[in-house]
Amino acid sequence: MRLVWILWIFYVALPVQAEDVVLGLSKDRVAITATFDGSEILVFGAVKRETAIPETPLQVIVTIAGPYKPIVVRRKDKRFGIWVNTENTKIEAAPSFYAVATSAPWGEVITAKQDAKHQVSVARAIKARQTAPADAEQERFTEAVIRIRSDENLYQLLENEVTVDQQTLFRTSIEMPSNLTEGRYDTRILLTRNGVVISTLNTEIDVRKVGLERFLFSLSREQPLVYGLLSLAIAIFAGWGASGLFSALRRS
Description:
By secondary structure, this protein is of the alpha+beta class. The protein has helices at 2-13, 106-109, 112-118, 122-128, 136-151, 212-222, 224-251; strands spanning 19-25, 29-32, 39-49, 59-65, 68-79, 82-95, 98-102, 155-158, 163-165, 169-176, 183-193, 196-209. The protein folds into two domains: 18-208, Sandwich (Immunoglobulin-like); 211-252. It is built from seven helices and twelve strands.
């Protein structure tokens, strides 16, 4: 009898639905060059399962998060006709880029409780990186960051942009803007049913400067004195060249 109970407990402890993600990316590396004007990442994959397809519809969420960096947010108020900084707060870490693509409206793909657990939305992703509890003022500044970066296309919520075929195949494309920060872009795929996450898969996309941009970036970080002298020499040469050109035009 005891053995029966042990087997029963083991059975109910198993996942109800064993579904895993098999993922593909159109590219896992993005090169930033002088002519870089953005990139489109195609995310596609399939759901691997060993049981029959459940009746409840499968939903898919795809997230891409850029490097996290601290930022200082300042609020401006008009004083005596002049806009001045009045208050500021520091957000310990916020993603330089964050995109969320879903297969259905946000409220249908994940519950608020599951979002808090897995930090899927950008607000939850930022909150998860803060060491101190956020007060009402901090929440307002965080909302301002999300609003500003959303206007710059750095934060994206792409509802109904993931196509799911036969509850097995899925695909979506995410536009990455030209002003990307160099670094690792963490990519997640989450499968949900009834708003509950049942499977996740993590990978990454590497975004790097190449060519002349890579050389100048490395030089500015590793040898700032040489970089400064080179910049000064270029500025002097450009000024001398412009002066010579104007003199030639006046003589002609």
